[in-house]
Every structure is written in C-alpha cells, then in structure tokens.
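Dear H.,

Thanks for agreeing to be a second pair of eyes. The structure we're designing against is below in token form, covering all 154 positions.
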C-alpha cells in the first residue's frame, strides 16, 4: 500500500492506492452511501466521465487519513450537500471493469441535515428496493443491489 497525491483538476488529495511488483495500480478503495428514507433509496445519475449515464449510489475514494465511514460522510457532503449518519455496512464488492481493481464498500446511511444539491450528478431519484433493477447501474453494482433487495425483503 502506497499513499500518493493525486490531482483531479484543482483537487489534490492523498488517496490510498495499492501497487503490484511492476508498479501498476491494482487496487483502489472507494465507498458508496446508500441513503435510505422510509422505504426508498437515493440513486443518482452521473453526467460525465467514464460512468456517464449510469445510476449509482454516490460516493468516492477513501483518503489516506480517514476511515471508510468518514469517507462516506465526506463524499455525500461534497456530492449532495447532505449531512448523513452511517447506519451500517451493507456489502463489499470488487469492481474489475476499470484499468485497476476498485474495492467498493457500501454503507447504508440516513440524512441528518441538508437539502439535496447535485454537484457531480445530473439527476437523483428516490426508489423502492424492488424497483432498483429498472435503472442502468454498472454491472459491478449488481451484488450491492441484490443485497439491498434481499435485506429489504426480510
């Protein structure tokens, strides 16, 4: 595990990246927040970049100096202007469809304060668990959707 400074536009932060013996990135740690309100979950659609047009549970990279739970709270504040409380860890998924493997940890959260403002997404919807599969998610998100749907049915 090596900590690197990575710059995305004006944003320069330290992220935890894992490299193999040939110095290629092979693993990045990211988190997503599944915001629940009554029996609905917040999903958001990316408007640009590699994942443009796909729905997702918002989140992002874990910084070197924070826990995964802290990363979820920070990312949802940055992306949605919402203060959230992490309720529980739902699932971990290994996403291998990018150049590097991305290890995704999904956390169920609830809104404590704030009004939803989309900073990096084009659209957001509140959706029941059984309707989640009607939206175009990346294939790597399917285990999270299945776990959420299974948890909801209990």
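And this is the sequence the design step returned. I haven't edited it by hand at all.
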């Amino acid at each position: 595990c090596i900590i690197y400074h990575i710059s995305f536009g004006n944003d320069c932060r330290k992220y935890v990246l894992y490299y193999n013996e040939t110095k290629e990135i092979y693993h990045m740690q990211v988190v997503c927040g599944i915001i629940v309100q009554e029996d609905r979950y917040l999903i958001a659609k990316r408007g640009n970049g590699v994942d443009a047009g796909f729905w997702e549970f918002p989140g992002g990279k874990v910084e070197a100096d924070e826990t995964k739970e802290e990363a979820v709270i920070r990312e949802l504040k940055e992306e949605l202007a919402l203060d959230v409380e992490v309720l529980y860890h739902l699932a971990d998924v290994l996403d291998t469809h990018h150049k590097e493997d991305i290890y995704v940890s999904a956390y169920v959260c609830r809104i404590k304060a704030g009004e939803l403002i989309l900073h990096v997404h084009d659209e957001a919807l509140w959706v029941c668990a059984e309707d989640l599969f009607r939206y175009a998610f990346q294939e790597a998100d399917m285990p999270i959707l299945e776990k959420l749907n299974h948890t909801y049915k209990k």
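Two observations from my side: Residues 1-20 have pLDDT under 50 and may be disordered. Helices lie at 68-80, 142-153.

Warmly,
E.
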